[in-house]
Write a structure and sequence with these properties.
Layout (H helix, E strand, L loop, with lengths): L17 H9 L15 H12 L4 E5 L4 E4 L4 H8 L8 H4 L4 H12 L4 E11 L4 E14 L5 E10 L1 H10 L4 H16 L17 E6 L4 E5 L1 H7 L3 H4 L4 H4 L8 H11 L3 E12 L2 E15 L5 E10 L1 H23 L3 E6 L4 E5 L1 H7 L3 H4 L4 H4 L8 H11 L3 E11 L5 E14 L5 E10 L1 H23 L4 H52 L4 E5 L4 E5 L1 H7 L10 H4 L8 H11 L3 E12 L2 E15 L5 E10 L1 H23 L3 E6 L4 E5 L1 H7 L3 H4 L4 H4 L8 H11 L3 E12 L2 E15 L5 E10 L1 H66 L6 H32 L7 E4 H15 L4 E6 L4 E4 L1 H17 L6 E9 L2 E7 L34 H10 L4 E6 L5 E8 L3
Parallel strand pairs: 27-29
Antiparallel strand pairs: 1-2, 1-5, 3-4, 4-5, 6-7, 6-10, 8-9, 9-10, 11-12, 11-15, 13-14, 14-15, 16-17, 16-20, 18-19, 19-20, 21-22, 21-25, 23-24, 24-25, 26-28, 29-30, 30-32, 31-32
Helix pairs in contact: 7-27, 12-18, 27-28, 29-30, 30-31
């Protein structure tokens, strides 16, 4: 595969790992079935991170194809022919030669089973040849965040060398067999498995922390929570939360935590005001958060998890918006001019003040949230609707003075009024026209007064023409009228000033309204307003529109028509209840299924329905605010699943494992195997500092080791470490292979220590016994060698003496033989039968003595290297016939049968081969009952000739068979004690055959006779 850019950042789960880490990082995974590492499932990422930090050989087989990743410790298992191509390859391909064996186990693991075997033998082709390899291994399932098995974790330790050593030791000595057997049995009890764990809480987009115990000790906390609390890690970590944050004591937090921890009740708060000491002073912070109980494997609550986020900014912005709107409402309500805000193409009345309601003779309930022409249908045929739509379409302002308005009164009559009015466009924060601001002033009285004045002036002119004579009297009247006109002009000037002031106020209100709407639109949480019993949408900010996923043009639509998918989710009923009763409704972590882009999707909200009241205290609409907590809930579920998977992994691990948290090394988790090593009950150790739970483990060097691992993050490994423990009330020395690994979160903070241990006590004791036995054996061997050397010297002295004695006896025995022969000749014609018989017997004994002495001399010559082997070519068949014929002359108690195949020529010392045949025949006669047959055979087998001599005698016991060719060795039974001999014949025969590059052996069964064989090479 091609190599990636080396400058790319390394994900946390691919960091480290030695040579295999570098190899895996160098691979371009974009075209591989696994895909880019950044997109790998979280369970695979964690497993890879754990694999790199493990001191044991670990293999990950992912997915249905069992795609492989492994660490440096596992690499030698694959040998030269399987590595590195096994990386990313299917295990089916890599281990094809043993797939029939391991394939069914892999399938079982994918169904949730766990397999583990010690010293399991598989034939592997990993170095160009098939080897019988032995492993202690375990196959365990790797579950994803949904609890589904997605891969296999293989942890194995190769024990091939160990098995070979055990097999070798089994052959050392009978004295060691029991110890070796015990060692092999103990080896089969060793359990080796996965070393895979990960951090429980990774970095989340919300504040998260875990409190343990009744003191609510901060066991785990992420950066978001530290930022919210205004604290550093060392200020809160492994400390009771109320001690680390004393400002919480008087704010009811203790009672909330106690209710969760003691009663198991979850707690959720929205926009809760909390006083926190941060930035060198107390600050009021508004927080959305939840408290949830944490359970151990037995279902008991042992902690509390909190998840929250700071909503201070949103709360303050909303309050600012509410204040702004309240001020705007107050200003509008106090203005003497009539003000109305119309929204959308239907000209829905969003807001109007009391002055306008008095002019219309309507109430808020009759107007708010309704189209203008629905409230005032009499305006349809008047110019106002057209003018309003023109303003919406063009953005031009319309100003009309003394416009005639015909309004229908409550009694059904039509009232004609005159108003000065202006229509100004309203825009949102994007500049889009959304409505019209209507400002009007009822000038009916002014118009009527002016028109009356005009009529009076006409009438006065007529009177002036008719009453010219009364000018003087009318002059004073005219003066009064002039004064009235001046007063009217003053009033008009004041009205003009009032209109100008009103126009400025309206302009300011328009700006304030736009600012308020801009704030609503920019709010980071969804906001909408529904008016009337039909729940017409009067306002919805962009965040709410994105949540709904229905497009931008929703104003004026009914909430029920816009979101029909909510019909079966009980939300309409809650909304209607709020409108009918005026009581707000709040929901927390509520699942809502919305159709977005045509797909029904689950979303989680904290939301509220708040009633809106008019000036008469009647509900005219409902405001909907919400906070999308989908990510929070998903994170919560993942944390819960991660916590469960984490605990399951430790509990099910076939090796001893425990998790020690904080500087006091509190035993948070421990599986049965670890509790068994400690020799304590589970209740006596869990949730206690390790050296409080195991005081017997103190002062053995473990305190400093754990402190170093916790402070530096450097793992510690030990092999066959002796630890003295009080196990089940008895002091015991336990030998362990163990690893202390730092337990680190995604931010690199060390939370505790993960301990993985294997009890190798029996193995160590067995090895020590073997070593002791080997030492004893070595001592015995040295003593035997010394005794052997003494025996060798004695044997040499014995052989020298026998050789010398035999040589010295040879001369007088030769003289004695000559005398007996001469005496025999002289007594040949004697009548003294006794002397004749005596000379015959004496001659026989001399011959036996001569043969015995010759044998001793030949042994002496063999030992000194002076015996001569003079080889010539001769027919073996002929030699056999001669030796058999000689024995037939002197042996009448047995019959001898000679069976010869092809005649062969051999190159050998004829006399010495003859002596071998003679010796074997003599033994067959001596050790078989009278009257039995002796069979002599000669067969050609390949390039060798085989000679066998079979008797039907007493046979040889199995224990004696390996020794019959030893020097001076004689089989001792009740049948052989009266048979003469010194045990030199077979020894001498074996030496002669070996010096001819031949072999000699025997096959025998006690009570059924023996067959002696020898083979010699033929002449080529």
């Amino acid at each position: 595969m091609p190599v990636n850019n080396a400058n790319q950042s390394i994900p946390y789960f691919l960091q480290g790992g030695g040579e295999m880490g570098e190899l895996i990082r160098s691979i371009d995974w974009s075209t591989h079935l696994l895909g880019q590492p950044e997109s790998w499932p979280s369970a695979l990422k964690y497993s890879v991170s754990m694999m790199f930090s493990s001191a044991l050989p670990v293999l990950i087989c992912w997915g249905q194809e069992y795609l492989q990743l492994y660490n440096d410790q596992f690499r030698p298992i694959n040998g030269e022919t399987k590595h590195p191509q096994a990386v990313g390859e299917s295990a089916k391909v890599t281990y094809a030669e043993i797939w029939d064996t391991i394939g069914p186990m892999f399938a079982g693991v994918m169904d949730g089973q766990t397999f583990g075997f010690p010293n399991f033998m598989v034939p592997l082709d990993r170095n160009g040849r098939t080897e019988d390899c032995y492993f202690d291994f375990s196959y365990s399932p790797i579950k994803d965040d949904n609890g589904v098995v997605a891969g296999i974790l293989v942890v194995c330790v190769e024990t091939t060398a160990k098995i070979g050593a055990l097999n070798t030791l089994s052959d050392v000595n009978e004295e060691l067999r029991d110890a070796l057997a015990l060692n092999a049995q103990n080896q089969n009890k060793l359990r080796e498995t996965e070393s895979s764990l990960r951090s429980v809480i990774s970095q989340a987009p919300v504040a998260m922390a875990i409190f343990r115990g009744t003191d609510y000790v901060v066991e785990t906390v992420n950066n978001r929570a530290l930022e919210l609390w205004g604290r550093k890690t060392d200020e809160v970590n492994q400390k009771p939360i109320l001690a680390a944050m004393p400002e919480l004591k008087e704010q009811g937090i203790q009672a909330l935590l106690d209710d969760v921890y003691i009663n198991g009740n979850s707690f959720a708060a929205s926009e809760l005001a909390v006083e926190l000491s941060r930035n060198s002073g107390l600050e009021t912070v508004f927080v959305n958060f939840v408290y949830e109980p944490l359970y151990d494997a037995d279902g008991n609550i042992n902690g509390v998890i909190t998840i929250g986020f700071d909503v201070t900014e949103s709360v303050l912005e909303r309050r600012k918006t509410e204040d702004s709107e309240a001020k705007l409402d107050q200003v509008i309500d106090l203005l003497p001019a009539a003000i109305t805000i119309l929204i959308g193409p239907d000209l829905v009345i969003e807001r109007t003040n009391p002055s306008n309601l008095a002019y219309w003779k309507k109430t808020k309930a009759q107007t708010f949230g309704k189209p203008l022409l629905e409230v005032l249908p009499e305006l349809v045929d008047q110019p106002f609707p057209g003018q309003l739509r023109h303003v919406l379409a063009t953005g031009e302002t319309v100003v009309v003075n003394e416009g005639e308005v015909n309004l229908e009164l409550p009694d059904g009559t039509i009232s004609t009024t005159y108003v000065d009015y202006s229509y100004q466009p309203l825009t949102d924060n994007k500049g889009q026209r959304i409505g019209v601001l209507v400002m009007s002033n009822d000038v009916t009285e002014k118009v009527v007064s002016r028109r009356l004045l005009e009529a009076n002036e006409e009438e006065l002119q007529v009177i002036n023409e008719d009453l010219a004579a009364a000018n003087e009297e009318l002059a004073s009247t005219n003066e009064e009228l002039a004064a009235a006109n001046e007063e009217l002009a003053s009033v008009n000037e004041e009205l003009a000033a009032t209109n100008e002031e009103l126009s400025e106020t309206v302009d300011k209100l328009s700006v304030s309204e736009q600012q308020v709407r801009a704030i609503v639109e920019s709010a980071p949480f969804p906001i909408s307003v529904y008016l009337g019993s039909e729940m017409k949408i009067a306002l919805a900010n962009q965040t709410m529109l994105e949540v709904w996923g229905k497009g931008e043009n929703v104003i004026g639509y009914s909430y029920m028509d816009l979101l029909p998918e909510l019909d079966t989710q009980g939300i309409y009923e809650k909304l209607t209840t709020v409108y009918d009763t005026g009581k707000p409704f709040h929901a927390r972590n509520q699942r809502v299924d919305l159709v977005v882009d045509g797909v029904l999707q689950p979303v989680y909200f904290n939301y509220s329905f708040t009633p809106l009241f008019d000036g008469d205290g009647r509900v005219y609409g409902v405001m909907n605010t919400a906070a999308d907590v989908t990510d929070l809930n998903i994170a919560k579920h993942k944390v819960e699943q991660s916590e469960e998977n984490f605990r399951d992994m430790i509990a099910q691990a076939p090796v001893a494992m425990c998790l020690l948290t904080g500087p006091n090394h509190i035993i948070e988790l421990a599986n049965d195997a670890m509790v068994e090593i400690w020799g304590k009950s589970y209740a006596d150790v869990i949730n206690k500092p390790v050296f409080d739970a195991l005081p017997d483990a103190r002062e053995q060097g473990l305190e400093q080791v754990m402190k170093t691992v916790y402070q530096t993050g450097v793992p510690f490994m030990a092999s066959e470490q002796p630890v003295t423990l009080m196990r089940y009330g008895k002091e015991d020395i336990v030998y362990q292979n163990f690893v202390y690994q730092p337990y680190i979160n995604n931010n690199g903070a060390i939370l505790g220590i993960l301990a993985i241990s294997v009890n190798v006590t029996e193995q160590v004791l067995a090895r020590q016994k073997i070593e002791q036995s080997e030492a004893e054996l070595l001592d015995i061997k040295k003593r035997l060698e010394a005794e052997l050397e003494v025996g060798k010297q004695l044997q040499q002295q014995k052989d020298g003496f026998i050789g010398m004695a035999s040589h010295e006896l040879k001369t007088p025995l030769t003289s004695l033989s000559a005398i007996i022969q001469v005496a025999g000749l002289k007594l040949k014609h004697s009548n003294d039968s006794f002397l004749k018989d005596a000379m015959t017997k004496a001659n026989t004994q001399v011959k036996k003595m001569n043969g015995l002495i010759n044998g001793f001399l030949n042994i002496s010559r063999l030992e000194s290297g002076k015996i001569l082997i003079e080889k010539t070519d001769f027919h073996l068949e002929k030699l056999l016939k001669e030796v058999v014929a000689e024995h037939e002359l002197t042996v009448s108690s047995h019959s001898i049968e000679l069976l010869v195949g092809n005649d062969v020529v051999i190159h050998a010392d004829r006399d010495k081969i003859g002596s071998v045949i003679s010796n074997l025949l003599s033994n067959a006669v001596k050790y078989s009952p009278r009257g039995k047959e002796i069979s002599v055979k000669c067969l050609l087998l390949g390039n060798q000739v085989h000679v066998s001599i079979k008797d039907q005698g007493m046979g040889i016991k199995a224990d004696d068979l390996p020794k019959v060719f030893d020097r001076y060795y004689r089989v001792k039974t009740s049948h052989t004690q009266h048979i003469s001999g010194f045990g030199i014949g077979l020894y001498l025969s074996a030496e002669i055959i070996h010096r001819h590059d031949g072999e000699i052996w025997v096959e025998s069964e006690s009570g059924k006779g023996s067959t002696f064989y020898f083979s010699l090479p033929i002449v080529k």
